[in-house]
Amino acid sequence: DLVIVGAGLFGLTVAQQAVEHTGARVHIIDIRDHIGGNAYDRLDGAGVLIHQYGPHIFHTNNKAVWQYVNQFAEFNRYTNSPVANYHGEIYNLPFNMNTFNRMWGVVTPAEAKAKIEQQRAEAGITEPKNLEEQAISLVGTDIYEKLIKGYTGKQWGRPCTELPAFIIKRLPVRFTYDDNYFNALYQGIPNGGYTAMVENMLEGTEVRLNVDYLADREALNALADKVVYTGPVDAYFDYRLGALQYRSVRFETETLDTDNYQGNAVVNYTDAETPYTRIIEHKHFEFGTQPKTVISREYSAEWKPGDEPYYPVNDEKNGALYAEYRKLADAEPGVIFGGRLGEYKYYDMDKVIEAALDVVGRELA
Ligand code: UDP
Fold it and tell me: Whose CA is nearest to atom 23 of ligand 1?
């Protein structure tokens, strides 16, 4: 009944719901040799679960989504709290009283607010028009210079003045001594990992890996009444309006003969000179006690054909191009587009699941 292209969280959720509620016969295919999309994790030789496509911390305010994922896994109590390393100075993230204290020596929220207000006024910002202005207006010039400018430049390959303000608004700014990176009611990492969790979603679904949908789409379309496509939307239309831009990341992973390398799961290197954006020490996601540790240095780059697309570049130019692809997608009979790549949207995992549950309710019920 249904062919689903892409075994990431969008496709998996649609598949699971379609099987459970409609008894549909569902076939899910993926070009990769594994399921789980970028949430995929695997056990390394050192016995550490590796987040192969970068750190994934599940967090949500949506109780229905939380209950949904808890059907397939139990979650641990991991709370994301990365630290920033700026030329050897360590700052707590997200931006909170610990950060302000380390940066300026301020102790009270009123002192921190006064400092930020002073820096915002000196920069002359009233209505922030881009990421730089938004950042300075939220946390002042010093934090922008030390913790945002270099990191964002590396991550996006563009200056902060050319990036949309919403990207920095993903991070909370708090005037409490609270290092929890997310404002979310529910947070954690599935015990046993994401791959084990998504395997539990697949009961009754046929999975075919290493299948390139776009190379064989007529034959695959002929199998089903409906297609759910979660690959890049521009690739689906053979880039006929031009290519959308994506950021890709690559990881250098190594096993170290120490039980604790950096004391935290994620350390962001926020200066412009260090070539990687962050180092992930995977064992800390699950409070691992293995004698060795595995770390991944994360490098960001502009996507080019052959790379994995990770992040849509949601600036004005790409937004306008996506709007044109969206029209084509809406007019495509029998195909539902979804997920980070199918909708060209900087989705978090919970939002992907929420969107997939909506689609099922609307289109497949
Ligand atoms: N950011 C930053 N410094 C940091 C962490 C994040 O400037 O130490 C900015 C950067 O522009 C980044 C954005 O905040 O793209 C959003 O960060 P988030 O952690 O949400 O990114 P993700 O984990 O999705 O890569």
Answer: 55
Please report the sign of the dihedral spanned by the C-alpha atoms of residue 18, residue 19, residue 25, residue 27: positive
Q: pTM for this structure?
A: 0.96
Between CA 116 and CA 100 the distance in angstroms is 9
E-assigned strand segments in 195-306: 205-208, 226-229, 246-256, 266-269, 278-281, 293-302
Smallest CA separation from ligand 1 atom 19, residue? 171
DSSP states along 117-148: HHHHHHHT-SS--SHHHHHHHHHHHHHIIIII
Asked if 174 is an active-site residue, the reply is: yes
Task: Summarize pLDDT for 220-266 with one digit per residue, the tens.
Answer: 999 999 999 999 999 999 999 999 999 999 999 999 999 999 999 99
Q: What's the 334 CA to ligand 1 centre distance in angstroms?
A: 36
170 Cα nearest atom in ligand 1:
20
CA of 277 to the centre of ligand 1 (A): 10
Strand-pair category, 58-60 with 186-188: antiparallel
Tokens at 147, concatenated: 């913790």
Q: Are 80 and 266 in contact (CB under 8 A)?
A: yes
- Give me ligand 1 centre to Cα 293, in Å: 25
Active site residue 278: yes
- In the block, residue with structure tokens 């379609």: 18
Per the listing, tokens 């002042």 go with 140
Alpha-carbon separation of residue 151 from 17, 29, 227, 272, 299 (angstroms): 39, 36, 39, 7, 11
Q: Pick from 22, 123, 52, 63: which is nearest to 282 by CA?
A: 52
CA distances from 234 to 59, 208, 231, 243, 247 (A): 29, 23, 9, 6, 15
